[in-house]
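Blackboard transcription, Thursday session:
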Amino acid sequence: MGTGEGGLTLEGIAAEAAAPAPRRRRRLKLATPALLGLPVSWLVVFFLAPLAIVALYSVDVLALFPGPHSFALGGWYRLFHEGYIHLFSRSVKMSLVVSALVVAAAYPLAYFLALSGSRRKYVLLLLLIAPFLTSYLLRVLAWKVILGDQGVINSFLVWTGLRSAGHPLSFLLYSRFAVMLVLGYVWLPFVALPIFVTLESLDTRLLEAASDLGASRLEAFLRVTLPLSLPGLVSAFLFVFIPTVGEFVTPSLVGGTSGYMYGNQIHDLFYAGFPDWETGAVLALFLIGVISALTLVFVRFLRLGDARTI
Amino acid sequence: MDVALSTNGRRLMRLFFALVLVFLYAPIAILLVFSFNKASVPTFPLSGFTLHWYHDFLTNSELQASLETSAEVAAISSVIAVALGILASIGISRSRFRGRGLVTAVLLIPLVIPLVVLGISLLLLFHVLGIQLSILTIAIGHVVISVPYTILVLLPRLGQIDSSLAEAAYDLGAGPVTTFRRVTLPLILPAVVSAFLIAFTTSFDEYAVASFVVGTRPTFPIYLYSALRFPSRLPQVIAVAVVVLTLSMVVVVAAELWRRQAEARLEAAA
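(Written on the board underneath:)
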């Protein structure tokens, strides 16, 4: 910073101009820790340290209720023996289905936008993504209004005489179906984006080459486009799977008891009538452990894929 | 011949695209319709036009207080997040130092952490440190969520601009602050504005983390969530929903169009 002051005078400019280039480069290098210091410390203090505290709670070193405490693995025992693990696998299955469906629906949308050569593609892309950029809670609310026993669909069916009053389609709301529908609705616009980005950077000459060499459109798609868009596909999948597997807001609004998810359990262990922070901490750590492992596997898998195609 | 799509394929995809747009916008349209409906329960048949619910929410002081709280939290957290994001992006983009991968990973990891985990870990941190929960504790959490987004917006833009411009400024005697203010900032300004808007709207809309670290003043999403449990407040909430959804969509789309134009202008000037 001191040199900045001197730089405003003629002498300063002369001195600076005379300074050899390595000095300038060294100064740029010295500035890097200063630049990164604040953001990195913010995340260390308000993100990594809190996770460390969660870890301490999970082994009973820290605890909600005062009293003597020491290292104990009771919470981890409860994770595997009190049904939490079943709830976890049920939530994982729900998220896997939602992510797979959403990615499958988003792929043709992104493909259409990226490869159709339409001049309006950015406008259409924006139209597709815009709902994602608005309030999450309010989009969930919309479905609560639509799916309820007295809601838009059921009252419409009664009104038009398709169903008799008093016999609503009750599976619509407060069910696993409702949770998965709403999660799919919420994430669909966002997922098209990473797929669009990879497809758009695809070199279309490769497709022309494939076609010149006698490949049909389907072959060209299966052997050129699809493999090359795999990174976008996988990151899109992870972008839905990760937030939905830990979701608690949507299931608590439209899930009822049958749509209860692992994230709700974590939330309730911290807030319900009998809070159990130690077990809650275990559940949270287990969740991020599984997510990190999964992410690593996918990333590794993608790297291997790259190596093979080269 | 089009190698990517046959004529029929194109037609089919256009139809699918249209159907998806209907699926995405129909629920919002339904809210719009029922926000003007007289009955206090959103059911068919429609029972007449009214502005009653809009009037109700304009006079609901609890609701307005929550909107103000959210605006405060969003303003604080987005300013901090953008400042940190600018520092981090310049730091990452400028040099290839050892540990760059690790630092980038730390800065971006919050993207792949479920919000419920972020929420409880912050709750435990403030509990252990004995910090009173307030709008500041929410803002702190929102900064953690937003910083990665700001970096993802700023980093590509920094990669586009010619690094010799900043070097020229140094050679002409400008210090790091002057160089940033007079050279780098104007060039990345469109991206800074979009990063700010993303951080602001993310915070304004964030419920999960806020629900764990909220103090005595509820934010707008927290107010909404609690209002959803009272059926009598539903029509009013629907009216608010329409206003918020419309406003946020207009702002976001306008901002994105402006950013494209501004960056194109900067490209043309360079």
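Lecturer's comment: The mean pLDDT of chain B is 87.
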